[in-house]
Amino acid sequence: MAAFHIVVIGAGALGLASALELSERGVAVTVIEADTVAGGSTGRSVGVVGTQHVTALDVALRAYGLRRIQSWSARGLEFQAIGYLRLGRSARDLEMFERSLGFQRDAGIDNARILGPTELNVLVPDMSTDGIAGGLFGPDNGFLDPYQLCSLLVEMVRELGGIVRQRCRLLGADRVGAGYRLATSAGAIDCDGVVIAAGAWAGRVAELFGKQLPVLPERHQAVTIRLAKPLLYVMPMVMDLVYGGGGTGLNFRHDRPGQLIAEIHKAAETAAVDPDDYDEQIDEAAKDHLAELLLERLPGLHGAGFGRGWAGLYPQTIDGRPFVGPFDGEPRLVAVAGAGGYGIQLSPIIGALAADWLTLGAPTTMPDAAALRPDDLRIGRST
Question: What are 169's strand-pairing partners?
């Protein structure tokens, strides 16, 4: 594979994980990034890694990611295993949690468990359990620093001979034989294949190849919470949302002693924005809404106040599933896009699948992920 040259467009978590997987398989890799490493959605992520999901594929994808991220601790990645708690409000939610435990066991995770309201009060003493039927808890889940993750991935890619070029914008693309010639702001690049990993800009990049990739950049906001005094326990990641069920979308977690981070992941439709022109600061309406939800769910945090807030983008697809795989008729043009707010935790498996498609022609690491490719059916449903 040494003579096989792949260009990865985008130096966020998905692009760099794809570059690493390809490099580890002996492929020559060049990563081009229009801005800086982790300069898009990745750098504005809260960095959560969790397996407490309710479908077999969602759990399997994240279990792979969790193990890979844990393995990178040997290279210095600081993964904070504070635990991940998903709240359920109904008997139906608890039934989904029971199924999730089975999916997690199938994926090699056997320490997740369902907690009742009394156990939740012990785990998170400052949290109200009003309206909560129970929770799905994974003690090995946690969070990481997105910039540290991307810096480590860049380091490993370069160690294997890969090239990472910042401030290198794609301007155009032409098919040349079985490969491509890319026009960039730093000159032309010839390659045998391409990975589109441009996050919120993935749809625009796909258009340069004459392809449709419906990824909608949704603006989401987060804020730090300064506590009056440090908690006597570590607050796990708490998510009040079950897809197909209910919840407000509120989530919050420990960040550092005396500080939490909170955001609303997704509880309603959010309009797409221009990724080149959106407000990167949290607005007052969002603060007011978060304050209302936090006062209801964390009534024990007396004297807490908001600190720094910001806004980032979720590259979202219409059905909530990422695109991973080649376009029809273009086996060497692979999309890795639309991971929503889950790019960090999905990056290891998405990178492996991208490398599978380019080197083996099939998603051998996880065959069920063939359903994620950007084929005509999914695009037709997404327009």
Answer: none
69-142+217-316: CATH class? alpha beta
Q: Which residues pair with 226 in a beta bridge?
A: 259, 305
The span from the CA of 376 to the CA of 382, in Å, is 10
Instruction: Enumerate residues 6+ apart whose C-beta is below 8 A from 97.
Output: 54, 86, 88, 114, 134, 135, 136
Locate 178 and state its tokens: 């079985």
What lies within 8 Å, CB to CB, of 115 at 6+ separation is 85, 123, 134, 135, 136, 137
Inter-residue contact 223 to 263 (CB < 8 Å): yes
Report how far residue 4's alpha carbon sits from residue 2's, in angstroms, rounded to the nearest whole number. Answer: 5
Cβ–Cβ under 8 Å, residues 300 and 127? yes
Residue 148: strand, helix, or coil: helix
3-state secondary structure of 108: coil
CA–chain centroid gap for 84, Å, is 15
Rounded to 5 degrees, what are φ and ψ at 25?
-95, 10
Could you tell me the mean pLDDT of each successive run of 10 residues in the chain, 383 residues long? 88 98 98 97 96 97 98 97 97 96 98 98 97 98 98 98 98 97 98 98 97 94 97 97 85 97 81 94 95 96 95 92 95 97 97 98 97 75 41
Alpha carbon distance 371, 28 (integer Å) = 28
The CATH classification of domain 5-43+146-215+319-382, taken from the options 3.50.50.60, 3.30.465.10, 3.40.50.10380, 3.30.200.20: 3.50.50.60
How far apart CA 225 and CA 9 sit, in angstroms, is 35
CATH 3.50.50.60 boundaries in the chain? 5-43+146-215+319-382
Give the pTM.
0.96
**Could you give the CA distance from residue 339 to residue 331 in angstroms, rounded to a whole number?**
21
